[in-house]
Design a protein that fits this description.
9 helices, two-stranded antiparallel sheet, Nucleotidyltransferase, domain 5, mainly alpha, two-stranded parallel sheet
């Protein structure tokens, strides 16, 4: 569903989605409903990096269904360890937003030409380079010396290492989580702290 949503507008994914409908909980009926939603422009949007990784994981046939938190992205990362960044895509931006539709489109068009492992690695590298570039640009604008990386995607070792290398090369100190979880657990911790201060 996520892959079809991201690619909608760039190419016709209806046929691909219908051929993969067996992987959806409600099969072809669900796939047809998603196609109708996309045609009407009523599908929800997301800014989550994790959903992009989920979409690519499904596109490459690595993981179609999530049975535990982060499963598609984790399996994508595991597959990427066996590959190389053969696409070496230059990050594209729409203002201050990394263009992930371009990435997913490139993965889709190359999925029958390039190995799954190489495409998985290329995906992670594109995201890392793009996020690092955005962070450096913003750090320069704000005149700060530190760049932090958080969220569930920060558990991805390749993405984190690539961002670290890029920002440190530019002279910034890279900050990552140490005692508090990078994902939803960290958000919950922060909410608890805020609630505690509000009660005082």
């Amino acid at each position: 569903r996520m892959a079809a949503g991201i690619l909608h507008g760039k190419m016709d994914t209806a046929e691909w989605l219908l051929t993969k409908s067996r992987h959806l909980p409600y099969g072809r009926k669900e796939a047809e409903l998603v196609v109708k939603q996309l045609e009407k422009g009523s599908a929800p949007e997301t800014t989550s990096c994790g959903r992009v990784l989920d979409a690519v994981s499904a596109l490459l046939g690595i993981c179609y269904e999530r049975s535990y938190e982060g499963e598609p992205a984790m399996k994508l990362e595991s597959t990427a360890m066996k590959g190389k960044d053969v696409l070496n895509l230059d990050p594209r931006f729409e203002g201050k937003v990394l263009d992930t539709s371009f990435l997913v489109h490139e993965i889709f068009t190359n999925k029958d030409k390039v190995s799954v492992a190489d495409l998985a690695c290329s995906t992670q590298s594109y995201l890392a380079r793009g996020l690092a570039e955005l962070a450096i640009e913003e750090a320069e604008r704000l005149q700060v010396k530190h760049v932090g990386f958080s969220g569930g995607v920060a558990y991805n070792e390749h993405i984190t290492a690539t961002i670290r290398k890029t920002v440190e090369k530019e002279g910034y100190k890279f900050l990552v989580h140490n005692k508090i979880p990078a994902g939803d657990g960290g958000t919950s911790f922060g909410q608890t702290i805020v609630a505690g201060f509000q009660k005082q």
